[in-house]
Here is the input.
Amino acid sequence: MIEYVFIILAAVFFSVGIIIDNFLVTKKFKNTIALLFYSNITNLLFIPLLWIFGLPKALSLAMIIPVTIVAVAQIIYLYPYFQALKESDTSIITALFNLGKIFVPVIAFILVHERLTLLQYLGFIIILASSFLLTYHGGLRVNKALFYMLLTTLILAIGSTVTKYALDTIDWITVMTWAAVISTIITILVGTVFYRRDIWQSRKPYLKSFWQFMLNEFVTFLAMACVTYAIVKMPVTIAQGLLAISPVLTIALIYAGHRIWPYYFKENLEWKSILKKSAYFILMTIGIILSVS
Here is the structure.
């Protein structure tokens, strides 16, 4: 039963991480590129925590390109993700990460001709429908967050697929360590050459918010560790279904925290809005369970 506790904790940590991201995007950083730069730099500081589970190995020549693709995905997905956070409620962005459940099997089908069941296709349709309803504003108006998150999850799905390919040859600690190192090198090179002024002007907000960056990276690490432990111990269907409660947890955390620190949160907390979003979250959870069944 301990694995159920870990998967719920993972959902909580994921929610906290997205809440912190939203705060940094909407309250601290006007420049998205600068935030992307400092987020990637901070991420490298937490890589030694991975070495608790083992030390990375040297990359073979054959693995340099796949790991570099993973590293690039880890960099560029942040831009549309940060833009999405500017456009919609935090809980909705949390839910829209589930769009990745659609892209991963599609890419797997293209690359390795993996077949899907009718229930899985139904699950994908439900996920798409609930995502659309969460961002629909009437008429022909759809919140731009939907399109930003479609791009975000597509990039993450490509990175995830290439990661799975790399894991057939090398261990996950090696993949994650070298991906973080390569992404940091690329970030520094591109940032200092093309965006030096933006990065320099944002140094003070970064230093003032450094503890929030560190907290964000730490809860993200805890979420990954909890998921890794739980998935080994329980069926994937149950794990994915429980992780799907993250948007509901996000609303609950924001509702509780908003009473004390209203400045830190971005969410429509009117009961009508909460009930509407919760209904779509439940619908999306059903789609997720079907998609991994």
Summary: The chain has a mean pLDDT of 84. The chain has 16 helices and no strands. Residues 141 and 172 are 42 Å apart (CA to CA).
